[in-house]
Amino acid sequence: MAEIAVKKNNDLDVTIVKKKNKLGAKIIAQRGLILMSVPILLYKILFAYVPIYGWLIAFQNYKPQIRNIFKQQWVGLDNFKKLFTGLMGDRFIRDIINTLGQSLLTLILSTVFAIVLSLMLNEVKNTAFKRVVQNITYMPHFLSWIIVTGLVSVALSLPSSGGFINSTLMALHLIKEPILFLSKPDYFWGIVAGSNLWKELGWNTILYVAAMTAIDPTLYEAAEIDGAGRYSKIWNVTLPGIRPTIVILLVMSTGYILQTGFELPYFLGNGVVVERAETIDVFVMRYGYQLGNYNLAVVAGIFKTAVGLVVVGLSNFVSGRLGQETLV
Amino acid sequence: MKLKKILAGTMAVCMLIAMSACSNSPASVPSSSSEDSGSNATSSTESSNKVVLSPDKPVTLTAWITTQETAPAPDNKITKLIKDELGVTIEYQIVTPDNVDQAIGVMIAGGDYPDLVGTTDLKLRLLEAGALRKLDDYLATGNYPKLSEYVEPYVKRMSYIGTAVEKGLYIFPNYNRFFGEIQGGTHWGTGFWIQKRVLVDAGYPDLSNMTLEKYFGLIENFMAKNPKTEGQPTIGFEVLAATGHEWGLTNPPQFLAGYPNNGGVIVDDKNVATIFADKQIAKDYFQVLNKEYAKGVIDSESFTQTFDQYLAKLATGRVLGMHDQRWDFGTANDALVAAGKPELTWVACMPTYEGVQPWYMDRDVMNINQGFGVSVTCKQPEVALAFLDTMLTDKWQKIISWGIEGEDYMVDKDGKFYRTQQQRDNYNNVTWRASNRLMALRDVLPKHNGSFDDGNAFSPDDQPREFFDSLLKYDQDFLKSYNKQTWRQFMNQPKDNPAYYPCWNIALSDEVNQINQQLTDANVQYLPKIIMGSTDSFEKNWTEYVDAIHKVNVKAYEDAINAGIQERVKNWQ
Amino acid sequence: MKSKRKTLTFENVTFTTINTLILILLSVLMIYPLLNTLAISLNDGLDAVKGGIYIWPRMFSLKNYEIVLKMHTIYNAFFVSVAKMLVVTFTNIIFTSLLSYSLSRREYIFRKPITILIILTMYFDAGLIPNYLLIKDLNLINTFQAYWVPSIISAFNFIVIRTYMKTIPESFIESAKLDGAGEFCIWWRIVMPLCKPTLAVIALFVAVGSWNSWLDTLLYASRAQNLSTLQYELQKLLASAMNSTVAKGGMAGAQAIAGTGGQVTTPLALRAAITMVAAVPILCVYPFLQRYFVVGLTIGGVKE
């Protein structure tokens, strides 16, 4: 009902505006909104876009001691060529694949499980219990990656080193010999996604749980009258209710597809699994910052941004085409 | 009407919070001009204006220090002493090594430096960015006798010889410029370590002319007799390969072949460096490891564990041997000593190939890439140098290193310094140190390493009496059985270091550093496969590894190292 | 009341039981890391290195906490962290909601271009040095302002708030307009109170982000000790306890490190205590904000 009212009002608004039909008049009429948004936009432009001139160093043989960025030596696309060709190129492309693999797997797992956990929490009628569970599940978010990677690598080690995953699997007779998980390249993406899941699951549910509380209770009542069971209500009321949230979050995160945190692959990765472990950020850490090679970091950053923009643009477009939420 | 009030209200609250929050940050202006001490006419380097530090002319020096040490507490007694006696206040900007890459980048880009800059990286980014003053002319004035004394015999070695800025002296190296006799009982460097109980069990075997075969023989025998240690499986040999500690895996071949630690290269008699990773000396070593792995002597988790896990295993006492450097596994050693199990700690062996003299221990190398420089934006370079000069006097060196006589250390009737147990415990307490020592400053200051004129060692750790007092009964007996007094005596007598030594601190260009990193990466990726692979596929795996090495531009790397060697041979003589 | 009867069906009982069991299991799995960290932090440092401590300390010791809490810089740093968190959260809520409100109004002529420009900032990062130079040129280096001025708007939070605001019935706003209220008045008096749940979530996100950040201290305020934050001080303390990371140059610093050996605790245990000290204050924020979540919040509620 409210929706209809909104639409009507909206139509009304549009017709009113059309009647005036003069930009100047509109600006005067909307001066309040302009006053609210334009200064903030300018502010944001200052802090987010103005420093982008720093990307120029991607096309330079940048030396920080020459302060003026416009007086550096220009080298055209040399830095990009270096990154994408030869031995470095092979490696960088491998790292792109690893980044994609790790972040896609993480994205899918975290989204699915966060939704499932939110649904489960939503079904809990005892408020105290619900709060306790929520408070506990979001705690790992506050541990640093170095602590989490420490715990993960112990959990995955041999039973004699405290590896309880191996102990459990052996006790259940699922395996005979302990598995050295961190020496199996094929497991690595899964280990990264699993660790991420463990750390961020509870945190990721916050928005979903909050979104569920906003669902109109009358919708549940109506479904009950139609004879819907519990699962049916989840499927037909709750999920559609949070669908916009899911879609918006998914669309937004697709833009970060190349921005995996560097800590997990850096601390958990080792020579044996490096083929699947090294990501763009780890590469940039090793060959960029640690060697004082700032161009490399910027070149990789530009690449990541470009890919991110294309992907987020595409997914926003697709989402719109499918009649779902869009960012703009 | 109303809305304006509301808006004004929110803004006001917002500003108020912001302002009240920043009002407790007074006078933290980085430019440290302070009350000018008058005598130091800025920018001039003439000899006439010798600065005398005195409490009547208070000065403030800002100092950037890259260190793991924390800043002193406000009530620090040495800070107070320096202020009272010299009138100098130091404002610290302390950056930890983990963060230094980012912090140096923005500092250089910003171009605003503190007065004293403690550089600590091999690339000398700050120096090459033109952040530091050339110091030769200042020293030539003769106003800084202690600094001159510190620098003089080694000035060529300490000077920058690259091409980015004018050649000359820019920093005062912070460690291992030795004076007098080098004392000390602990060997902090490299070795193939073996647990003391293994040697005791084998009846204190002769450790000279050690070979890999003998070394692993001892381990295997002991392992066969003691498959468990405190209920856990005994581990024969642990390979250290954790991120940042890869040298534990890659360094041994050069030692086995009788070369000193030059990082990734060996240097022949004609001063020509070549990498050894793909050579026979490496192949032989990794073949031995491959065989030992097949026998179950080497821990299968060696290559997948984090450094914490490595230390944890060592600390349980079930690891019989490993190749590492003593300082690197200090925590594990301390944990075992604290648990009263000295028999589970290690002593260093020096296995070599047939007919080769070991060169595990080298003459301690001067830290030419670390230390204080004076920045170009420092408005009072004479004051900064006068401060460093004063700090180099014996009096202040003792305060910096030992503390205050009677409070932090005692003097026996022969004039030798020693500490009571309480004083040692104090020193080991981080909180105490924050109030009573200037650890961060000490880390970067030029030091009187070795001995003072009165025969005392520069630092308590090197004082012979301190060393013996801290030995446990078990260790005393152990040493006696080997007819030795210190752990250092288990090592070779270090030969004179070659003129260019060591190659690992030759500053390399970005390109070459990348190649170096690629070599490390190839090692870390392929060597575990070689070691953990079946002994039958050793040759195949080795070839694969060598191919990977040869894909990297090794020549460019060797050329750069050789250029560095030649430059040093030419300039350092 | 109708539903009372239904909850007693077999299906519902099984569902509730299984659901509860899984949630309990999950909670155990999730609380483990924190309990483990707590146990290690309360254990003797040298003993902890051996591993094998799970949820109960083996050799109880308060030494690690003593070291952390006796650090002279920590109390000032705590207050700076709190002040920073409050200011950042407050300014974020005000400015982001102001922007969100204006861009949630469908008739606003600049809505689309401004929205696009704001959203794109999520994916652009100029990098360390240009950002630093901007802050420096604005004379914010080594001032408290460097903590909050650059970050009063977050695009992500903007999307969340704006999408929620879109669900507010237009009629509310229209009737306010008829009463002669201006845009600022509508935003503050009508829209903001309706958005409490969203704002609570955003406040949580911003507060936690601000609390956990330390890079801003390193880059923008490391020369001003009195502006140092808790996280940054703890970071430095941790580094001082780590006596094994100077391996960059192979052997460089062997002597340097040796000189400080014989610590009374170990990096492992100290790290655990530091983690607890850093996390516990911020963990208290969530339960406090939780009560706002009971009322609605949606992101992407109503379609255009």
Strand and helix layout:
The complex is a heterotrimer of chains A (328), B (573) and C (304).
Chain A: H1 2-20, H2 23-29, H3 31-49, E1 60-61, E2 73-74, H4 78-84, H5 86-123, H6 127-137, H7 145-155, H8 164-171, H9 188-213, H10 217-225, H11 230-254, H12 263-268, H13 274-277, H14 280-287, H15 294-321
Antiparallel strand pairs in A: 1-2
Helix pairs in contact in A: 4-5, 5-9, 5-11, 6-9, 9-11, 10-11, 11-15
Chain B: H1 2-23, E1 59-66, H2 77-86, E2 88-95, H3 100-110, E3 116-119, H4 125-128, H5 136-140, H6 145-151, H7 155-158, E4 172-173, E5 178-179, E6 190-195, H8 196-201, H9 212-225, E7 228-229, E8 232-233, E9 235-238, H10 247-250, H11 252-256, E10 265-267, E11 273-275, H12 280-294, H13 307-315, E12 319-325, H14 330-338, E13 346-349, E14 371-374, H15 381-391, H16 394-401, E15 410-411, E16 417-418, H17 421-427, H18 430-436, H19 439-444, E17 449-450, H20 464-469, H21 473-481, H22 510-532, H23 538-551, H24 554-572
Parallel strand pairs in B: 1-2, 1-3, 5-17, 9-12
Antiparallel strand pairs in B: 3-14, 4-14, 6-12, 6-13, 7-8, 10-11, 15-16
Helix pairs in contact in B: 12-22, 13-14, 22-23, 22-24
Chain C: H1 2-7, H2 10-41, H3 45-48, H4 63-69, H5 74-104, H6 111-120, H7 128-137, H8 145-148, H9 155-165, H10 170-178, H11 183-194, H12 196-212, H13 215-220, H14 230-241, H15 254-258, H16 267-283, H17 285-290
Helix pairs in contact in C: 2-16, 4-16, 5-9, 5-11, 5-12, 5-14, 10-11, 14-16
Family (chain A): Belongs to the binding-protein-dependent transport system permease family.
Domain ABC transmembrane type-1 (chain A): 96-315
Keywords (chain A): Cell membrane, Membrane, Transmembrane, Transmembrane helix, Transport
